[in-house]
What does this fold into?
Amino acid sequence: MSSLSTEVAKRQSVSNTRNELGLCRPITVIFARGTTEPGNVGALTGPPFFNALDAVIGTQNVGIQGVPYPASIAGYLAGGDAGGSANLATLTQQAASQCPDTQIVLSGYSQGAQLVHKGAAQLPAAVASRVAAVVLFGDPFNGRAFPNIEASKVKTFCFSADLICKDTIVVDAYHLAYSVDAVPAAQFVNSKVSL
It folds into this structure.
């Protein structure tokens, strides 16, 4: 295998679990998976987004930390798992304190987007100011503002026909297709960070 193909293979994430908080790379992504997805970053949206970030920003520049939480249907129906939201806030604060130079990106898919909303609301102002970008996929709270993060730092990907984005409980094919937005999402992050 050539060195180029080895590097490409390394950058193609298929892992549904990522725990890279302590790496203190220039960019730290805190990602919350969707309901019933495996691992701590899921399979449908997280890994394609991470691959796009690696391609756009560079593998050596991005650390991914998944949010541990049950990702149950009950959590979704409650507007996002409360413990998972607290975990997201804690991980974000750890990234800010352990890695003072990292640029923090918060991201989530489906119920994970609910966790980003609820977890970000728990952040102290000094930590919230460290968030460089927020990227949401299939957000049930589509259009809801973040009280402590500038709107210009937030990008939401929601298909107009995705019923979850209308805060219903109906999962359709549109809701399962956000991997198509991985590259535009990575490009948005790239426009908000500096290397």
Strands lie at 27-32, 62-66, 103-109, 131-137, 154-157. The chain has seven helices and five strands.
